[in-house]
Amino acid sequence: MPVQLIVNTEDPYVRPYGYDATARWVPRLWRRDIKAGHWSPMSHPQVLASAVHELVDYLDGKPPSRALLRAEVRRSRKCFGDMLVAVTGAGSGIGRATALAFAREGAEVVVSDIDETAAKDTAAQIAAQGGVAHPYSLDVADAEAVEAFAEQLCAEHGVPDIVVNNAGIGQAGRFLDTPPEQFDRVLDVNFGGVVNGCRAFAPRLVARGTGGHIVNVASMAAWAPLQSLSAYCTSKAAVYMFSDCLRAELDAAGVG
């Protein structure tokens, strides 16, 4: 008999550890922990409905969702197995290394970059190591493009479990010698790109109701003022503070 547990991690009356021994008695068990209190059917009705539908569909012969695969007790998987991860600026450097690392740990990865050829190359490297990746072209400084990207990604692959807002650029030079458009471009990409990514994906993660993570890549430059990198240092300091503020706001929804 298949059994699915939906465990309310914030329930003050029925504590989560009370379910821990269930697997001893139930051979076919799925467990989903949600950040909810005792009355989750009223506070998170869509989450519970989706969980039930996904299990019923699977038992009827349909392919399992990523969430259902993760919930299956006793199923072995890698650290990020059965997860969808989106990484911006994944065509090179830190973004590419991050995408490759997630793929090695079992994640399905959406790689985006302003250079579409570079994004496709990263996806090819992931495929060569046995992973699954989907390349997209994206300028994170374009708010409308980021929203369209998020809509397309979620329609084609589902809501990502982890979003890594990594895309960034540098501009060296003294402030008085830097043209305004160059200074502004650094802020638009490094900070504006993070804001655009969070604005596009945070509502979708919250609406899904099962948590997730948004990773905003800052830099030690946030704490190290340099006269030759005023735009870059400013943008990274803004990313750091914005991320702390957003973390506090989204905590109740289980999005970290």
Question: Can you describe this structure?
Answer:
With 256 residues, the protein is of the alpha/beta class. The chain has two domains: 3-71, no CATH class; 84-253, Rossmann fold, CATH 3.40.50. It has nine helices and seven strands. The chain has helices at 40-43, 45-59, 66-71, 93-104, 116-128, 143-157, 180-190, 192-208, 230-250, and strands at 3-8, 29-34, 84-87, 108-113, 132-137, 162-165, 213-216. It has a five-stranded parallel beta sheet, sandwiched between helices. It has a two-stranded parallel ribbon with strand order 1-2. The model has no long low-confidence stretch (mean pLDDT 96). It comes from Mycobacterium xenopi 4042. This is Short chain dehydrogenase family protein.
